[in-house]
């Protein structure tokens, strides 16, 4: 990776992870969908069904050509639609940015990285398997750890709490800003801007 700009000047595929359907819409696991929905609003466009198995929206963000994508599969099967969209739009793994919920990041914090493990996240595991590499960008939306002995799998499938919901629009907005910074200025600049807060 000569520089830390996703896609090295070409098209960037920005993927939000979540589960489809209204019953999951407010879940912590759907943080990725919330962020790409915010980015779609900034582009002033609407998602359309695509043969890759994702809903997509093409536009320009941070001065770059981007495709926003939301897999229409369930979280655990996200890899197929993501790999399908990457193939269709001719985007290599280093041009893929995945926005997802992260248990090991405090609620409201944003962390960005390139590569690494899936940390028990089934959506990432599926994407890594389908792309054949761990080397893609991740924008991690912190949801924090579950209280007490609650199973993390149950925790992420619950809606954000009333207290969390008060801050949610602000946090989604900040995470969308972090994605824009990553796309326009690169990973190091985005980490410097968003990891401190």
TrEMBL record:
The record marks 101 as: Stabilizes the basic form of H active site to accept a proton. It is found in: Cytoplasm. The keyword Hydrolase applies. The record marks 19 as: Discriminates between blocked and unblocked aminoacyl-tRNA. Its EC number is 3.1.1.29. GO terms for biological process: protein quality control for misfolded or incompletely synthesized proteins; rescue of stalled ribosome. It comes from the Bacteria. Its main location: cytoplasm. CDD domains: PTH. TRNA binds at residues 24, 74, 76, 122. The active site is at 29 (proton acceptor). It is an enzyme of class 3 (hydrolase). GO terms for cellular component: cytoplasm. Hydrolyzes ribosome-free peptidyl-tRNAs (with 1 or more amino acids incorporated), which drop off the ribosome during protein synthesis, or as a result of ribosome stalling. NCBIfam families: pth. Monomer. Belongs to the PTH family. This is Peptidyl-tRNA hydrolase. It comes from Prauserella shujinwangii.
